[in-house]
Amino acid sequence: MKTSIILILIFFLSEKLIPQIDLRVGMGLDFFTSPSLVDYINQSGFYGSEELSKFSSAVNFSSEVGFIKIGNYQISTELAYQLYSYNSNVQLGRYDIEFTNILPSVLIYYLIEGKGYNFKFGGGGGLRIVAVEETLPASVSSDKFSNLGFGFLLRTQGNTLLSDKLFANISIDLRYDFNGVPKSNNRKLYNNLLREQVNINQLSFGIKLGFCYKF
Which end of the chain is less packed: N or C, by CB atoms within 10 Å? Predict the structure, then answer.
């Protein structure tokens, strides 16, 4: 009896589980809000003649591999790189701050496929590795901070066939990243006026264009 059940499960999985490699590369923009970071820049007076707005944009580069398809579902892994920088000329000199965020994620999609196109709807999450580099006015060196966090995202993808196995891709993301408070040794990024630590947590909406190749 047990042998029969095992054989039935093997047959079922062999029919449903299909190795299918999708390789996607893309580039786009993330429109994000990070209130603690904005308050830090504005309250510290580094914004120059005009205060920094609540929403900013960051460049996002990403690559993704979908490697297992089970029925209408697919598992994939992604590695994305987000870059944001801000600079301003103030009375004492030039102020610069830049943060980079490395965003590895595991995602599960629901697939809708047709002739020459497919759509994917899903989400997932993973670690977030954030690094901040700040150069204060009149300073000859930069201060560097970093932290390890985590994040979650929801995504919609559309792929349109260009030729053979090559597709044009558009991806839309909604993401929240708990990047936490960057630190350097025992020192953390700190807002002296508000007397609080500065976190780089962010809510973002992103759109990316790229290509997807099916092997």
Answer: N
